[in-house]
Design goal:
Strand content: 15-25%
Distance between the termini: 27 Å
Strand order of the largest sheet: 3-2-4-1-5-6
Largest sheet: 6 strands, mixed
Number of helices: 5
Order of helices and strands: EHEHEHHEHEE
Number of strands: 6
Length: 153
């Protein structure tokens, strides 16, 4: 199984009128998600994908764009925005998909990457890490690549 961790695209700045969970993608964030979506379409050939999203608006907007080439409905899990990895590992193990595509937030994504691979990498907005999972619980895997949307064509 592979796990593809993706940070949401660039979102609105924090302002008094919005809660953190209400912040939406800005145009740059939509473009970042669209670039990653095109990349996913190239690398997902023949693989069954299950999309997962945090309930925060910017993550749900990102996953919607990512899913455009694939269709379907993402699983929305509060554990993603809370950084609670263990219940997610259990869910991912039962999903039956070849790839778990997870849209979430910092600092949790970099913590999960380190938990799974031993590699610490902060995720810039819109970026993704592909992990080949050898064992889910405890999590153990290999980082296949880290991709930033600005470096994609």
């Amino acid at each position: 199984m592979e796990i593809w961790l993706i940070r949401h695209g660039k979102a609105e700045e924090r302002i008094d009128d919005l809660t953190d969970g209400q912040r939406r993608l800005v145009a740059k964030g939509e473009a970042q998600a669209a670039k990653i979506a095109r990349y996913l379409e190239k690398i997902a050939k023949g693989k069954k994908l299950q999309f997962w999203s945090s309930p925060l608006v910017r993550a749900q907007e990102t996953v919607k764009i990512l899913m455009t080439p694939f269709g379907g409905i993402p699983r929305v899990q509060g554990e993603i925005s809370e950084g609670d990895l263990l219940p997610l590992l259990n869910l991912w193990g039962k999903s039956g998909a070849d790839v778990q595509v997870v849209v979430g937030h910092e600092p949790f994504l970099s913590e999960w990457l380190e938990d799974m691979t031993g590699i610490r990498q902060e995720f810039s907005t819109g970026s993704m890490a592909r992990i080949q999972v050898a064992h889910l619980i405890p999590p153990k895997g290999k980082l296949l690549e880290y991709v930033e949307p600005e470096k994609l064509e």
